[in-house]
Amino acid sequence: MGKGILATFGILVALAYVIPFTLLSEVPRFTGSFLFWIIFAGGAITLLFFIMRSWNE
Amino acid sequence: MSEYLLFLAIALYAGWGSAFALAVRKGARLSLVEYFLAGRKLHWLIASLSYSATTYSAFMMLGLVGLTYRGGVGALGFELIYLSGLFWAVLVGPTFWKLGKTWGCVSPGEVLRAKYRSRLVGTTYALISCGFLIPYTSVQLTGIGYLLEVLSRGRIHYFQGVLLATFFIILWTAVAGLRSVAVTDSLQAGIMMVSSLAFVLFLVHRFFGGFAGLFHAVETTHPQWLTVPGNGFFTFRTFVNLSLPWFFFSISNPQVLQRLLVPASLQEMRKTITGFLGYGFTYTIITVTLGFAALILLPGLPNPDLATPRLLLEFSVPSWVVLFVVIGILSAAVSTADSIILTLSSLFLQDILSERIPEKTKLSLAQYVFIPLLCGTIFLFSLGRFNLIALLSVTSSLGLLSVVPTILGVLTKGEKSPKAAILSMLSGALVVLIQLAGVHLFRGWTAPSALAVAFGVYFLVQVMDAPR
């Protein structure tokens, strides 16, 4: 697995912790943290899919 | 909801579950690999649905709905961070699978034992897993006990509900091992998804006129529930303490780690995990939406864990939806518990009992002694009627964080130190136990401290113990 993918994943997870508690903490709407975490999960799933594509038997 | 409907739900559930379990029993007792890993030849769809049903427990429809009710959108973040934690399973999956196949391992403890060349590593891992998973498994029974008691308006006593669930778990686990667990799980996963989807669509359309109506109602009446820390429940520390153990759930919990030993090929494993990710994403959004609906429809609940049964009881939900939701929650609880029981049995047989016991004797011990004994222990634990489904679930995963460095150590090259693995697991578990006992260490950062201590000890001892 490439270091780039690992780093991307690490950044993605860090953002999932930081953004809702900072930039979105004053946005009391569904388009705030709710939407952000859904987009985060979509991104993480896509990344996992790419990692699994590189598996060799 | 009429009692007739409730009994019909239970009868249907018992009937089809037992029929499926019995239908696949042929050949299951031929060997430990057949019994605990279904001969490493489960179809990916069955494996994927079973993985979903094992992972998603009564916690979702009761605990996560309650957690959303209490703390709002933080519950969604916490659960989706868990889903992203499948990364760890994707990372260790191929290595674990290859090692398991090469060495003929049945339990995750055996893989660790082989890699670290120490039986004590496997035994320590097995004991820690058993210790921390018993409360989590008992939570599943607690969920069923509460659900049936509330829905029957007290006619089915909590004790009777728990006893009934224990009976299903023993029957479906013991009859054919992973084969019966996987087929019953698959059907249960389907019911969990369809029933929760039907329930949320009914509530949202009937009482809010659509999702826009629900969003508008929450934004206008409970805006603080849409941010973190918001109403104060999800402080950053609480969020980290709750989500970190779940981020590592896919490798820290042996019942899901063992599933990495099951696929016939890596291609099958890829399909299994992909299927699970889709399932998990959808199911999470459904349950969180239910939590928000309950927040508007049932204000001021003293015990938010009961939000789902109260919604079923107090609103004119169609009978068929109620029937399926009840079966869905029973399914979620039983499917998680039976997988844990099966995995703990394999750990006990392979990593704690003497290696000299013949395979056939081990199989009989699993079916007739260990599975009923473990179920009995969990039954007794659940009689404590602990109210905090979410908290107890997380506590178990918190303790299991202590095994994470040892599992990830399998990926590293070079000679591995068994001392590092054992001391890391013990020290991590100790830090968790001390803090759970009420001693305030590390300013309440329970999960990060357990993980940091386990990793710290692992690296330190590995460096000191490395062959010169």
H/I helix tally of chain B: 22
What are the secondary-structure elements of chain B, in order, as H or E?
A: HHHHHHHHHHHHHHHHHHHHHH
Radius of gyration of chain A: 14 Å
Individual helix count of chain A: 2
Q: Low-confidence runs of chain B (pLDDT<50, min 5 residues)?
A: none
**Amount of helix of chain B:** over 70%
Mean pLDDT of chain B: 89
Poorly predicted segments of chain A: none
N- and C-termini, Cα separation of chain B: 71 Å
Q: Name the quaternary structure.
A: heterodimer
Q: How does the overall form of chain A come out from the CA principal axes? A: elongated
Outline the structure in words.
The complex is a heterodimer of chains A (57) and B (468). Helices cover 75% and strands 0% of the residues of chain A. With 57 residues, chain A is an all-alpha fold. The two termini of chain A are 14 Å apart. The relative contact order of chain A is 0.15. The model of chain A has no long low-confidence stretch (mean pLDDT 91). Chain B has 22 helices and no strands. Chain B has helices at residues 3-23, 32-37, 44-55, 58-71, 74-84, 86-103, 108-116, 119-151, 158-174, 178-208, 211-221, 236-247, 249-252, 254-257, 266-297, 307-314, 319-352, 359-382, 389-400, 404-409, 418-436, 446-465. The longest helix of chain B is centred in the last third of the chain and has 34 residues, at 319-352. The termini of chain B are far apart. The A-B interface holds A 1, 9, 12-13, 16-17, 20-21, 24-30, 32-34, 37-38, 40-42, 44-45, 47-49, 51-53, 55-57 and B 73-74, 76-77, 80-81, 83-84, 86-87, 90-91, 94, 215, 218-219, 223-224, 226-230, 236, 239-240, 243, 247, 265-267, 269-270, 273-274, 277-278, 281, 284-285.
